Structures are given as structure tokens and as C-alpha cells.
Amino acid sequence: MNIFHAYENHCRNQKTYPIIKHSHTALHSFFNEYSPVHQSLIIFLKNIPQFNQISIDDRVRLLRNSFGFINIIHATAVRNEVPTSLAESLSNVYTSSITIQLFQCIERIQMLAHDMIIIRLLLLIITFSSGSLRNRNDIEFNDICTDSLSIFATQNRFVELLWKYILTKSSDEIQAVKFFSKLIQFLMYLLNVHIIVDGYINSFPQEIERMDALMQSMWPSPHKNTLNFK
Q1: I want to staple 67 with a disulfide (CB 3.0 to 4.6 A). Which of 57, 146, 180, 218 is the partner?
Q2: Is 127:45 a contact under the CB 8 Å cutoff?
Q3: d(CA 10, CA 110)
């Protein structure tokens, strides 16, 4: 199964999220409702041969490291429009400044969502980023992957595929370079917003403790490791 069919089979039929409007005190319920969407993304990754070829520890580390970054792209790309419930929930759950930045991210992602090949490749390139993408300072996220060279080589392969695809869609190489440069700028902006959001969530440990097991595992404590790739 190739990466394109894997995404279509496991991620494209997700229901619009969120269904309900979450209140100011419901950060945990907002993420709990999102949990099935995240689970579909894990299933997609489990169908990628390069992901399965690395150790379980490295897979868990990569997934936790890229959690917020890949999920804002994934959650936006699988919906045709931004539901009213999402706009209201974001406004309630986050500060006004964070909400504005998240909607700017959503608008930019939706501009790319017409081309799901780019979206899928971006998800894989980000997932195979072994550097720190989280606003945390603990062993869980600062450890170096055991097979970092293999992970780096895989990421380079997906970057190469993305570049070749952009070339085929561009009128000439100059236009391809311009589009690729804008894509990098967008990812840097998205990463910056993700780091801000991650830091905000980290400031509410009591809300993290009320999330379901899968969501909690994205903010692991030394005594919790609930991810299962078997």
C-alpha cells in the first residue's frame, strides 16, 4: 500500500470535528473529542513501511515529537470547511491571541488542501523530523533517536519526492523554487504557532490528566507509556 492510498483509506473519511462547542474549562474534552482523528493518523503511519522499519521507541518518540505540528495540518485538511463549533471552541479553549494565530494557520493549510499529495508528503516529512518540535524540556522529548541516520535518510527521501512533485506542477524550475520557499516559510510559521500552543497546554497539567489515555500519552509522564504499535 503506498502513502497516498494509505491516507485515503484511513484518514479521509473522518467526521467533522468538533461536534460540540467546548467551554472555557474544557481543554481536556476538546482533545478527547479529537482523539479518534489522531488515532486515524497513527493508523496511517503504521501503514507506511519506512515508519515500521524503525524501532518502536523511535516511532513513539517521533509521534510524540510531531504531535501538534502534524495534527493541525491533518485536522484541517480532512474537512471541507471550518465548522462553527470549531471556531467557538478555539475561542473558548485558547486565548484570543492564540485563536487568531490558529485561524491564520488553518487558512493557509486550506489553501494547500486542494492538493492532498502535498499534504501527505508534508505529514511524513514532519513526522520524520527527529529534532525537538515541542515546547517541553524533559528526557521524553530531548533524547536522540536510536536510528537517527535512517530517520534522516527517510525524511530526505520524502523531501525529494515533494520537490519532484512540485516540479511537475510548476511551469518551470524558478516557479518551483518560489513555491518550495513559500512552503518552507509556511511550515516555519506553523511550527512557531504550534510551539506557543504546546506551551499553553503544558501550563494546565490538571487538564492533561483528564484527557483520555491516547491524548495523555502525547504529554507523557515518567510513569505513563500508553502508545501501542503492535
Answers
A1: 218
A2: yes
A3: 20
Q: Interior CA angle at 181 toward 175 and 186, to 5°? A: 125
Rounded Cα–Cα distance for residues 210 and 80 (Å) = 30
This prediction's pTM: 0.84
220: preceding bond cis by omega (within 30 degrees): no
H helices present in 78-115, as ranges? 84-93, 96-112
Helix, strand or coil, per DSSP, at residue 32:
helix
Cα–Cα dist 162/179, whole Å: 11
Q: Which of 177, 158, 145 is nearest to 63 (CA)?
A: 145
Residue 95 main-chain phi, psi, to 5 deg: -70, 165
Burial of residue 206, with CB atoms counted within 10 A of its CB: 0-12 exposed, 13-18 middle, 19 or more buried: exposed
Q: What is the pLDDT of residues 55-104, one digit of tens each?
A: 998 898 899 888 888 888 888 877 766 777 788 888 888 999 999 999 99
